[in-house]
């Protein structure tokens, strides 16, 4: 249902934009979120976008550096990341909620992409 891409190796201070393409079976009414995960830590909510708006994680570690956007014509949701830091190294996942809500909990989401690895070197 979801295909995440765009990860890679980037130097600290650099930028990356991740993409999450939804299959034809998904609906533009669904909301799509980005999470990230590092070993031995809970999956971290970054942002979600839906028809009712956007909700972001306002943690200091993320604020002002990550932005979510969506192109419904392309069935694609983006996560633009700037001023990347080594602490941003993680596997980034996109997820969809059929109800179109804006949840922050990973347990609510119905579908998940396969993840894309972002590595930030110092």
Structure description:
This protein has 122 residues and is mostly beta strands. Helix content is 0%, strand content 50%. The strands form 2 sheets. Strands 2, 4, 5, 6, 9, 10 and 11 form a 7-stranded mixed beta sheet that branches.
Question: What's the helix and strand layout?
Answer:
Blueprint: E1 2-5, E2 8-11, E3 16-22, E4 31-37, E5 44-50, E6 53-56, E7 66-71, E8 76-81, E9 90-97, E10 111-112, E11 116-121
Parallel strand pairs: 2-11
Antiparallel strand pairs: 1-3, 3-8, 4-5, 4-9, 5-6, 7-8, 9-10, 9-11
Give a summary of the structure in a few sentences.
With 122 residues, this protein is mainly β.
Q: H/E order of the elements?
A: EEEEEEEEEEE
The tally of strands reads: 11
Poorly predicted runs are none
Provide the residue-averaged pLDDT. Answer: 94
Strand proportion: over 45%
Helix content: under 10%
What is the number of helices?
0
Largest sheet: 7 strands, mixed
CA gyration radius, whole angstroms: 13 Å
Shape: globular
- N-to-C CA distance: 34 Å
Structural class by secondary-structure content:
mainly beta
Features:
122 residues; mainly beta; 4-stranded antiparallel beta sheet
